[in-house]
Structure formats: C-alpha cells, structure tokens
Known about the structure:
Order of helices and strands: EEEHEHEHEHEHEEEHH
Number of helices: 7
Strand content: 25-35%
Number of strands: 10
Largest sheet: 8 strands, mixed
Helix content: 25-40%
Distance between the termini: 28 Å
Radius of gyration: 16 Å
Structural class: alpha/beta
Amino acid sequence: MDAFIMAGGQGLRLGMGEKPCVDILGKPMVCYVVDALEESGSIGDVYVTVSPFTPHTEEVVQNCYGGNVETIDTAGDNYVGDMVYAVEQAKVAEPLMVIMSDLPLITADLIDSIVEEYYRCGKPSMSVFIPLSLCKKVGLRPDTVFNWSGNLIVPTGINILDGSKIREEQVYYNYLLEDPEVALNVNTAEDLQRCTGILEKR
C-alpha cells in the first residue's frame, strides 16, 4: 500500500520552526519517517503532504529523496481536509497508510506489523492506538484520550484507510499496540530530548 506523511501543520507547540525539519542527530525529523516507510516491505509509493506553513519541508524532502518521494501541496487548513485532498490528488483508490511526520522512532518492522494486522482485521479502515498506561510509563502527556470498551487509549497518528472511499465514513478497527516506539511523537522540547536519547542508543 502507499503511504501519506502528514507534514503540513503549523507545529506551534514545539516552537522550533517547521516541526518536520527539526534536526535530530543530524537528520530532519520527517526523514526518519520516510526512511522507515521506504525500508518497509509493505509500503509502495510515499507521499509527503506540505502546506504554506511548511515550505522548507518540501525543499528538504525533494533534496533528500528527489523523485522517489512526491510532495503534495495542501492548504494546511485542517488534517482531514488536507489528507482527503492529497489522496485524491495522488489518485490512490486502494488501502493506504496515513502517518504523522513527528514519529521519528517508527521502524520498518513496526510498519510491516501494522499493515499485516490491517489485512487480518477485515475492516476497511484501522486506527492504531496505545494504552494510556503506556504513556504514563514512558512519561508522555497525551493531548487526546478515548474510552474504548472501558479502556483509556491514545491515538498514535497512524491510520489505514480505503482510498476508494476517502470521502466516506469508514467502519474501522482499533488496533491497540503496547510499543513505546509508536507512543512517542514529538510535540514538546522534552519529547524531542527523549527521542534523541532513544535514537542515540540504537
């Protein structure tokens, strides 16, 4: 399946300019996500959505990957609108992965396992969550928490959708992962420091 990296948001909380371009050990954050997707055996084409808020991100992606990774200019107004526009521009009508650009700890193996679970679940769409307890364990303060059958869960920013029904509400499956690599997205300077420390030990 193809993958869309959402990199058009303002990223104001981190306060370090364009968040996808923030340097982590000499490498822009978005490149960690692109590299993991490209190393995955489950992912075909990779697209990066950019906006007027992230012009440098577009330059970084084009300079690092040339024509191998396509950037799609969106309005940057809202996540769902940008995602729908990007999928329609790319003319993808099969299952596709949507992933945030601020998940530098994501790995190809983890992506493969998520795609495998999607095809196993039998639903048209799937959202990846982690338990709130895992956030507390690794010292994260999530912005959004859902109550799912009595369990408190947190969205990871990774979803799989049916591209042929991108404008429709899709029946979805909740995939609960207990993996700190997918738990840590970078929203604050503290998150960035924690990610840097983990990547240094790899």
